[in-house]
Amino acid sequence: MARTLSPSVRAVLSAVAAAAVAVGYVASPTVGGVVVCVLLAIFAVGWPQLVGLPIPWQRTALLLLAGAGAGWAVLTSGNLRLLAIVGALGVIGAFVLELLRRDGRQRLVDSLSASVAGVVVLLSGAAWLGMGPDPIALAVVVTTAGTLAAGAAVSAIHLPPWPHALATIAAATILGAGAALALPELSWVAALIGLAAGLVSSSVHQALGRYRAARQPLAALAAAVLPVVIAGLPAYGLLRYFLL
């Protein structure tokens, strides 16, 4: 693996991750769930390095446990009700790690908030596992993943920040609107999915690209899969609120 990864390479990896989710769920919910779990693990490993958390291996262990707990909670309950418990335990774990530090606890607020943010992202990612086997759920998964991939592909183009963001949002929204024509059961929700995917892709690409560690392999991988992981909860919410 290359020593550093450019922003364009990260964007391409985001598109690959989104496409993998779509292909996995088309194959079967089990395969799609495995793909999602792999993405959660990649994020958990790379996030502490991306945001420069102290004693990163401890934060990685916390995030891996939170991701595993979130996945178990969704798979066993079939919904997201138990995620609140997993989230609470994750926040408590983040506080405990700060209390165990013996390095003077520099950047205490940054460290704690970044750890909690990582837990929240994993909780959102676990929502992918609760989409269910219904054909309309599969349509939402494929549309969400497809629009994320489109947004990530446009993110690979070198443009100034604002034109870059607008092009990413436009591409994802247009693809979502096209999905509405191909999948009439989604109706106007498909365009809303595209808009949300474009906003997520553009904001994550611009925000995380400012981190100096974002070019390091593990950190870059975490930044690449973040848009796909965090889109789980919005996709689940749109499915349950508007379509089921």
Automatic annotation (TrEMBL):
Task: Kindly list the residue ranges recorded as spanning the membrane.
Answer: 82-100, 112-130, 136-157, 164-182, 188-208, 220-243
**UniProt entry tagged with the keyword Transmembrane:** yes
* Native organism: Salana multivorans
* This protein's name: Uncharacterized protein
Write the lineage as a comma-separated list. Bacteria, Bacillati, Actinomycetota, Actinomycetes, Micrococcales
| Keywords from the named record | Membrane, Transmembrane, Transmembrane helix
